[in-house]
Each structure stands twice: as C-alpha cells, then as structure tokens.
Write a structure and sequence with these properties.
Order of helices and strands: HEHEHEHEHEHEHHEEEHHHH
Oligomer: single chain
Shape: elongated
Number of helices: 12
Strand content: 15-25%
Radius of gyration: 21 Å
Strand order of the largest sheet: 4-3-2-5-6-9-7
CATH architecture of the largest domain: 3-Layer(aba) Sandwich
Helix content: 40-55%
Number of domains: 2
Structural class: alpha/beta
Length: 272
C-alpha cells in the first residue's frame, strides 16, 4: 500500500500522505471537533484525518485539488452523511462564504498542508473571521519560528503578524517517517485560536506590508530600514517616529515586543 501511495503522490502538488493513524488521531483531538459543528479540511489527501473527523459527528467539508483523490474520497465516504468532498484549489476558497452557504457563521479548520503553500495559508488565518480554531501541520522549522516569543532572535515576519491576532501553540511534533513518501524534514502541528490583542491594527494588510518592510533587512537598525535615504529628512523622520511611538529606532526588528510593533505602526501611519 505504501508503494502505491508513493507512486500516486504528485510532487507538483507537494503531496505527502500521513500514514500513522495514531498521529492523525492526535491532530484531530487538537481541533476538538464536536457533534454538528462545521469543519473545513484543507487537502484531505487519502483521508487520514477525514475518517477521524467523520467519527466525531461534525459536518466536514474537505477541499481536495487532486481529481483522482477527490473521486476516491467521494467513494470512500459516500455512506457518511456528514462528509462532503469538494474538488477545489484551497487558495480560491473563502471560508466565511463557504460557511454562510451552509447556514453557519462559525467553523473550525484543519489540514496537513503542502510545505509550498504554508506561508500563503498561514497568512490568511487572521482574516478568517468565522474561524474559532485552526489546526495546521507545517514544516518543523517554520513552526518553531512562529511560536517563538515576539522580541526574541528567532522571531520573524510570520511570528509577529500571527501573534498579533492569534494565540499560537505547538501541540505535536510529527517525524518524517509518519508520511509516504517520506519528506526530507520533520513537521509540527500548530493550533491557532483567535484572540483580539489590545492595540492590534484593524487594517491587517497594511500592517502586514509595514512588517514586511521592517523585516526586509533584519540585521539593520529600524531607522535604516524604514528610512533608507541617507539625508537630513531621514534623520528627522526617524527621530520623530521614535518620539511618537516611544520605540528605540536603533533596535532591530527581531528585538521589538508586540506593543512596540503596535505603537510603531500606528505612529508610522500617522506620519504618513
């Protein structure tokens, strides 16, 4: 069976099938599915998580881009009234709209996502207004960076952006041998729970663009990243921003705490 999975896995889609049932069970437990609630599954593959989700009694909508896998899943779960298989590219899905189509406002999300889509999907989580909990498997190195406390050396753009709007927790390490074909790295499962932090910018996309600029040269001081021209106007701008925000502009991006980021962003926008 493993050989068959290996032959069918498509490198172009980043397919690595989870084959350790005990791991699948623990991932679903981290989501805490309940009877009758709506759950969206990203990339069900061969149904490792789907079967456990089905047993929970939740209403599961699984989005699979691979035509062959989608048809196999439809056959496998045709007698499960709480499982809906949809063949679609997850990047084209609006989860809030999908929930509304099914008469729901709230939902949970789960998925073992291809590494190549990790950043795109992770960045979308704060914008999923109806999501009450998201459980996602990503590359172990990415997971460790995301859960790093903001202000410590390993933190980055994803760390700050996601922790500005979500409580993030690493719940499980998954070794490469749990997949077929075996990937070159280990994975980790993260749980995201929305939490509105005081001062978090309402305009998430503008905030993200600001963070992206601030982290674009992470080894340089913030004054040299946010004000790149070596002119008197640059020095004046940096000094004014420091006074307005209360943030030391000689620091690097990785050294700032969340409150520093909120203050720096609001002051930067105020300055125009």
């Amino acid at each position: 069976m493993a050989d068959n999975m290996h032959r069918r896995a498509k490198k172009s889609l980043g397919q690595n099938y989870l084959v350790t049932d005990a791991v699948a069970e623990r991932i679903v437990e981290a989501l805490s599915p309940e009877q009758g609630e709506l759950i969206f599954e990203i990339g069900p593959g061969r149904g490792a998580l789907t079967s456990h989700l089905s047993a929970s009694g939740a209403d599961v909508v699984a989005f699979e881009i691979d035509k062959v896998l989608a048809e196999e899943l439809k056959r496998e779960f045709r007698d499960n009234g709480n499982i809906e298989i949809v063949r679609e590219d997850i990047l084209k899905i609006d989860f809030d709209r999908e929930a509304e189509k099914r008469g729901k406002k709230k939902y949970k999300i789960i998925g073992n996502i291809p590494y190549m889509l990790s950043s795109t999907i992770l960045l979308g989580i704060p914008g999923w207004d109806g999501s009450t909990r998201t459980v996602i498997m990503v590359q172990k190195e990415v997971a460790e960076r995301i859960v790093t406390p903001v202000g410590e050396r390993n933190c980055g753009l994803l760390t700050v952006f996601l922790q500005s709007y979500l409580n993030v927790e690493k719940v499980l390490k998954v070794v490469a041998g749990s997949f077929c074909p075996r990937p070159g790295v280990d994975s980790a499962v993260l749980r995201f729970i929305p939490f509105r932090k005081e001062g978090a910018p309402a305009d998430r996309m503008l905030y993200f663009a600001f963070l992206k600029k601030a982290f674009s040269m992470r080894r340089k001081k913030l004054r040299n990243v946010l004000f790149r021209e070596d002119t008197a106007a640059k020095r004046e701008g940096a000094e004014r921003l420091e006074i307005l925000s209360g943030v030391d502009m000689s620091k690097r991006a990785e050294n700032l705490k969340l409150d520093d980021w909120f203050n720096l962003f609001s002051s930067y926008v105020e300055m125009g």
